[in-house]
Every structure is written in structure tokens, then in C-alpha cells.
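Hey, sorry to bother you again with one of my protein questions. There's a protein on my desk that I can't quite get my head around. No rush at all, and the record is pasted right below.
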Amino acid sequence: MTEWLISPGLTGYQDALRLMEARVDAIAAGEADEMIWLLEHPPLYTAGTSARPEDLTDPDRFEVHEARRGGQYTYHGPGQRVIYTMLDVGKRGRDVRAFVEELEGWVIDTLAAFNLRGHIRPGRVGVWIERDDQPPRASGAKAEDKIAAIGIRLRKWVSFHGISINVEPDLEHFSGIVPCGITEHGVTSLVDLGLPVTMDDLDVALRQTFDARFGAPAQVRP
């Protein structure tokens, strides 16, 4: 069974870390169910384990937090749905790469509920949208923007951190970092793409598409 928690308002980053870490320990000990936690943060930047100092281009703009998850710099703020996934990867095959691919697939399935086609790209974790409304890149490649970031950490084979999907954040706030270390592509959101999607709409789609990717984990027999 997976518990779903939706927090109203804005949740401080350190408060979120404390809850996540406590819940992960309880899941690993068999004392709590898995959890999906949906929330929004105040404006802030997080640095993953691969973050490069030069990619924080405006260090005094917002608070910067060491996230201890995989990945580089990301932005969180109002209008962005953060989805913290506390799931037992140990009971789901212990394949971290496959687990990340399932997270990406979950985002793609969710976007499809709004008739939006998301893409994954080799070497670029996250979900991307091709922009037919923009001119191609200098290389001739089709323009594309990132709509969802993914970064996880495992403790005792239980995942935490997770996904962020841009619903209607202030996209200018991303300019204080090089998002995920990628300079040749931009960032978009559901509303930026012309879709009148609310946070509640997205939450409903996330719940509807979750079980196909992350049904109950396999039971481990003694």
C-alpha cells in the first residue's frame, strides 16, 4: 500500500528533508507504508551530488540547499509540483536505472493525460518537450525544453527525493542556475505551453497513472 500526502501552502526544504528521512527509515524497518508526498517549496535552489559551482550563476538570489541526491542544480518554487517518492526499490528489483526510467515513464504517462508528449533523452535525466513553435537550434536539431526534473537518493534500498513538474512556476527564476548542467536547452511549464492545467488537475493525473508503473511491490518470501 502506498500512502499519498498532499501538503497545502509552501513547505520548507529542511522540514521536508527531516520528514522524508524519518519516513524512509520507517519504511526500511517495515514500520510504515511507502509514501508519495506532493508539495510546493518556497523559491530555492538545490545542489545535487554532481553540482558544479560555476552552474550557480546567481548565488545570492535564493537559499541554496545541499540536497544529497543525484544530479546537479535544480530550482524549486511556487507553481511547481514536487513529488517526493519514498518507495521500496529493494522489493522492485534493485535496479536503480530501471527505477529512474519508471519515474520518467510515470511523468510521460501523466503528461499524456493532457495530450502532451514527453520525451526522454540519452544522457539527460528528466522529461523534455519538443517545441515545434520555436526555431531549430544552431545545430539543426529541433528545439526542446525541460518540463520535469528527476533526482533520487537511496537509503537501505528505499528511495527519496524524486520528481518536480513545472505547472506554472516563474520560469525566470531558473536563470540563477544552469538547470541540471544543461546550457543548450530551456525550461518550460504546462501553462507556458498553453495548457490551462491546475495543480489539482496534475495531482489527479499523477494518481491515475501511478499504479500502472508502481503497483504494490513484490512480496519477499522468507
The two ends are 20 Å apart (CA to CA). The chain has three helices and eleven strands. The first helix runs from residue 13 to 28. The mean pLDDT is 91.
